[in-house]
Design a protein that fits this description.
Blueprint: H1 2-19, E1 25-39, E2 48-53, E3 56-64, E4 76-84, E5 90-94, H2 98-101, E6 104-109, E7 124-133, E8 136-145, E9 149-159
Parallel strand pairs: 1-9
Antiparallel strand pairs: 1-2, 1-3, 3-4, 4-6, 5-7, 7-8, 8-9
């Protein structure tokens, strides 16, 4: 009897954990020979960063939420992109200096980003990084975007 109870308990926990599995994905990459072009729309406060061919290094954090196939329009992704001079081995940008890096946070979803003067502000905070190999950078980011959305990342970014 004890073995049966133990078996059912084990199966219960295994099945619960399987259903609660986190299917969200995160990536931390950088691309050489690139530049970042920031675009916007006068009707929206959200900014978009487009990676193009260039002479710099562009870093990208990307988050993709699990898409539940049974829920319409629940898709959600976000990116943080920024660029640095390709000749740097380390860097640190604080507040106004962030403009040098063109740092941009973008959400991709069925959301409203109507222009709001309180959100249409420059990012504040700090990004720093140190090259640890030709294929890796240690990045530490603590930035507030759009006046109230703080993002903190301390990760290894790998060459894409």
């Amino acid at each position: 009897m004890k073995k049966t109870i133990l078996l059912f308990t084990f199966l219960f926990f295994v099945s619960c954990n399987k259903n609660e599995e986190n299917l969200d994905t995160y990536s931390y990459t950088f691309k050489k020979n690139s530049t970042l072009k920031i675009t916007s729309n006068d009707a929206l406060y959200m900014k978009y960063g487009i990676v193009e061919k260039g002479e710099n290094v562009v870093f990208e954090y990307r988050f993709d939420a699990h898409d539940d196939k049974e829920i319409a329009d629940d898709e959600y992704s976000e990116t943080i992109r920024f660029e640095i001079d390709a000749n740097l081995n380390k860097f640190s940008y604080l507040n106004e200096e962030l403009e040098t890096s063109k740092v941009v946070f973008t959400k991709y979803c069925f959301c409203s980003f109507e222009n709001d003067i309180t959100k249409n502000v420059n990012p504040t905070g700090k990004i720093s990084g140190k090259k640890t190999s030709k294929n890796q950078w240690e990045i530490d980011l603590d930035i507030t975007f759009y006046g109230n959305e703080n993002k903190k990342i301390k990760k290894t970014f790998k060459l894409k």
